Amino acid sequence: MQTKKINIFDTTLRDGEQVPGCKLNTKEKIQLALALEDLGVDIIEAGFPISSPGDFASVEEISKVIKNATVCGLSRAVEKDINAAGEALKYAKRPRIHTGIGTSDSHIKSKFNATREEILQRAVQAVKWAKNWVDDVEFYAEDAGRTENGFLAKVIEAVIAAGATVVNIPDTTGYCLPHQYGEKIAYLVNNVPNIDKATISCHCHNDLGLATANSIAGVINGAGQIECTINGLGERAGNTSLEEVVMVMKQHAYLGFYTNIKTEKLNPLSRLVSDTMRMPVQPNKAIVGANAFAHSSGIHQDGFLKDNSTYEIIRPEDVGADGSKIVLTARSGRSALAHRFQKIGYSFNRNDIDVLYQQFLDVADKKKEVKDEDLHELAKAYQPEAVS
Ligand code: KIV
Ligand code: ZN
To answer: What does the sequence similarity comment in the record state about its family (predicted)?
Structure first.
């Protein structure tokens, strides 16, 4: 089986921080950058240095403290942006400038009032300019998801010839279906003659809930880097969720991809990002949501109690989650009730449980969740001498 390392490019501090209300100060950004390095990400996109003096300072300070990961700064395809990124990255051990321009006809016309040929020239000039600052230059073709493949291939060939080491193919608007995004990457692999001189990167937004699926389609078709964020934070409906793509590749190891992410650090870092950015994680979020390992219906609870793997494909400890939870609700069954009674110190036989189960349902129908206190009440009323 082939094994290919997929680089994890984390953009929580740049695309993630663009979320309204998620703004971070330099101290917070440094704390998260160190935690991301500890998690094992390969590249940390630390910010957009031209955007504000505060963001410039954050990129500069992060560059000083990060030892192993590449530190990346974003810029438009504009000399003054690139200069700011180059300056901010001057202390980085492994600096990368991420520069680019919109390549879809919609961006070319509405944003730039330009022609395809002019955009191609600006892309090449930006990469060449960035090469004056750093060796490692990543080019993004903004809105590549809606860019015609022939023109996209022309741009990518030209920027690689100009020195781009990574070529980012963003589905900026989250428009593509997985097979379309995968075909786009395959098209570049098959039609850009110098493509093996650069790493192809996926940067997928989640407007249709397809960011994770599209990124995985990208690596299956030849990409070597995924851009993503903790908790899937990012513009509008968000970016690709780091924890999801990493666990997809781990759970489907037969695909032949691996990352350097220490997956047992995923849940603690998810909480740190959520607290620092003041952005709650939805309870049903894959991998890091409060309910990711919670079982509530009787059928599921019964199967899970017989063998965890009947309803869990990931062990909670492998992603640093607190553990599996059996939540008692009106949908729960006798086996979950008996299990919980036992856990809190009561040993009831089958007949006892039959009787208690009816009383439990009366309580459960009035509440969202039956708690241990409720069970103690039931147990006391039923069998006051129960061992507790
Ligand atoms: O979504 C996007 O296209 C971006 C680029 C700046 C890489 O965030
Ligand atoms: Zn983006």
So the answer is: Belongs to the alpha-IPM synthase/homocitrate synthase family. LeuA type 1 subfamily.
